[in-house]
Amino acid sequence: MKIERLSQDKIRIFLTFDDLSERGIHKDDMWREIPKVHELFSEMMDQAYTELGFDASGPLAVEVFALPAQGMVVIVTRGKMNAHAHDGGHTLEEDDADDEIYEMEVTLEQSDIVMYSFRDFEDVIAVSKQLQSSNLTEDGKLYSYNGKWILALEPALIDSSKHNAVIALLAEYGEATSVTYAMLEEYGKVIMSESAIGQICLHFKF
Questions:
Q1: Domain residue spans of the chain
Q2: Domain 114-203 belongs to what topology?
Q3: If pLDDT is split at 50, 70 and 90, which confidence band does 111 have?
Q4: Mean pLDDT estimate for the chain
Q5: pTM strictly above 0.90
Q6: Cβ–Cβ contacts within 10 Å for residue 41, how many?
Q7: pLDDT in tens, 46-68
Q8: Pick from 142, 146, 75: which is nearest to 115 by CA?
């Protein structure tokens, strides 16, 4: 579980599928109101407070993005307390009610985009060469984001029998990223908007 602060009132939590399975949670459970998910959320908020000093009191907007090969991204935004809420505006303490610690407005989205980040452009070239020479794919978008290169692939454009081989190569050279596609589109810079792997192989020779 990785937690990072995006702003004073917003954090991002990256959960791998191992994080979920260790707690007996299947990714589809995140769509359901079950005690295990509440326990996981409480654990995430405790860790966010310990690591970042993020106080999760008051209303929270929670966005959950499912990423097919990497895990899940949870974005938590802290809202302002309403003046009339909770007995004249007092923060609801855990002792007051076990079941109502957090006021959550949950948004769930599933993304099929596979994204891996690379520190060095040489790694992007290397993985592109491998993907092309293995006849796996020449597709993809290349972004620059936060000092890293991010390769985004649309699984629908890749033969389903080759998915695992593509993921294995991407994981060998880069690492799964917790950035959502929406954030990439908004804050990242598009370097190659289509056929990124094919273009890289064409322009960069070893």
A1: 2-110, 114-203
A2: Alpha-Beta Plaits (3.30.70)
A3: low
A4: 80
A5: no
A6: 21
A7: 999 999 999 887 788 888 877 76
A8: 142
